[in-house]
C-alpha cells in the first residue's frame, strides 16, 4: 500500500515547529536540517541544567531522556537498544565499525562510486597499512551500484561490502536491500553508510540485511550538530574489536585484564555531548511521531517537483543518478560556476551547498563534472518555496498568477542569470 502523504495542515504544523524557516528558504538539509522546536528546547534545557547544577549531576537527573536515546534510535531503524552506540558523527561511527575488522593482507573490500570521501580514504589507508584490496564496483545503466558486478566481485577473500546508501553529491538511492541479500547469501560483512538516508528514507536493518550502519544526527533527522550513531548487529559483535577502548567500552578487571562490553556500547567513549545525545534521541522520536514513511514521501515528492522544474529549463543541467531518487537535487546553471550560483542564491536568503570533485574523486570526474549545486529539501519545505527558488535560480521576476514556471523555459531567461 502506498504511504500516505502529509496534509497541508501537517506541513503547517511542521513549519510552526521550525523556527529556522522564518527568514530563509533552507534547501540545505543534506548539509544540516533545521532542528524542530522540541529538539532545540531539550538541548538548551539540558545546557541550562548543566550550568545550574553541574554537568555530572545534570546527567544523572536527565537519565531517562539520556537512556531513551537508545530505544528511540533502535525504533527508528528496527534494531534493539543494545545494538546502538552513541558516536559523535557519522564518520567516527563508520570508522569505529570499519577499523574494528581484523583485516589481513589480501583481504578484499567491495565498495561503489557513491562511497563517501572519508570512508574511501579510510579504505586507502587500510590498503596502505594492512594490504587490503579495494574492489570498486561500477554503476549499472541507472547509475546505481551494479548488483551483478557486485555479486561477481565476491571472492573467498572478500571481508566487507561498504556501501553508501545515498551519496553526499546526488539524489541517488542505492539498492541497499538487494546488496544486503547478496551479503547474506555469500556470508560477507555489510557496512551501510546511512548518513544521508536516515530521516529521509524508512530504514529497517533487518530488511536491509546490513550488519553495521552509521549515521549522523544533524541532517535529515534534524538533531543537533556533533551527534551520530552506530548500529552493530548482535550477531557480529564478537567479530569486531573496537580500535579504541576506554572506561565506557570495557570493564577493567585487574592490573593485567580488561573485558569488552557485550553490547554496542563497546564502540562508545565515556565523555560526550550529553545534551546532544538527548537531543538526537528526541529528534528520532519526533520523526517517528510524524511517521518516517510520510516524511519520506513528502521529501521525495518535493525533491521530484524541484528536479522536474530545474530539468525543464534549457539553461540548467540536472545530474542526479539512480532509478529511485530522494530529496537531494544536484544541478549546474550553464555558464555559471556552482559557487557563483550558491552566492547568488544566498543573496535571495536561500541556502544550498556545493559538492566538489575533491569530495567525489571516484564519481564526478568520471562524469566530466568538477562541482555541482546541491539543493536538498525536507518535509517542512513547501511548493511555494520551490517556486521562489526557481525564480531566484533564473533571476527572473515573479510570473503572473497561474503562469506555470515549467513552461517558461525560454533560454533567454537563463541568460539573464549567468
Ligand atoms: C554519505 C555521507 N557519509 C558520511 C558523512 C559524514 O558525516 P559526518 O559529517 O557526520 O561525519 C557524510 C557527510 O556529509 C555523508 O554525506
What's the name of the CATH homologous superfamily of the largest domain? Type I PLP-dependent aspartate aminotransferase-like (Major domain)
CATH architect. name of the largest domain? 3-Layer(aba) Sandwich
Instruction: Name the structural class.
Output: alpha/beta
Low-pLDDT residue spans: 397-418
- Outline the biggest β-sheet: 7 strands, mixed
- What string gives the helices and strands in order? HEHHHEHEHEHEHEHEEEEHHEEHEEEHH
Q: What is the residue-mean pLDDT, rounded to a whole number?
A: 94
| CATH class value of the largest domain | Alpha Beta
Indicate the CATH topology of the largest domain: Aspartate Aminotransferase, domain 2
Integer count of domains: 2
Helices, by number, come to 14
The small molecules bound here are:
pyridoxal-5'-phosphate
> How are the strands of the largest sheet arranged?
2-8-7-6-5-3-4
Q: Radius of gyration from the CA trace?
A: 22 Å
Shape: globular
Task: State the helical fraction.
Answer: 25-40%
N→C terminal distance: 45 Å
* Beta-strand share of residues: 15-25%
Strand segment count: 15
Please give a structural write-up.
Residues 397-418 have low confidence and may be disordered. The strands form four sheets. The chain has a seven-stranded mixed beta sheet with strand order 2-8-7-6-5-3-4, with helices on both faces. The protein has a four-stranded antiparallel beta sheet with strand order 11-12-15-14. A two-stranded parallel sheet has the order 1-13. The chain folds into two domains: 8-30 and 291-417, Aspartate Aminotransferase, domain 1, CATH 3.90.1150; 38-289, Type I PLP-dependent aspartate aminotransferase-like (Major domain) (Aspartate Aminotransferase, domain 2, 3-Layer(aba) Sandwich), CATH 3.40.640.10. It is built from 14 helices and 15 strands. Helix 2 crosses helix 3 (55-61), helix 2 runs antiparallel to helix 10 (274-290) and helix 11 runs parallel beside helix 13. The protein has helices spanning 8-16, 37-53, 55-61, 63-77, 90-98, 117-130, 147-153, 176-186, 205-208, 274-290, 292-311, 338-347, 383-394, 411-417; strands spanning 25-26, 84-87, 108-112, 133-137, 158-164, 189-193, 212-216, 228-232, 250-254, 257-260, 316-318, 328-333, 350-351, 353-356, 371-376. The protein is an alpha/beta fold and 418 residues long. Pyridoxal-5'-phosphate binds next to helix 5. Residues 89-91, 116, 118, 164, 167-168, 193, 195-196, 216, 228 line the site of pyridoxal-5'-phosphate.
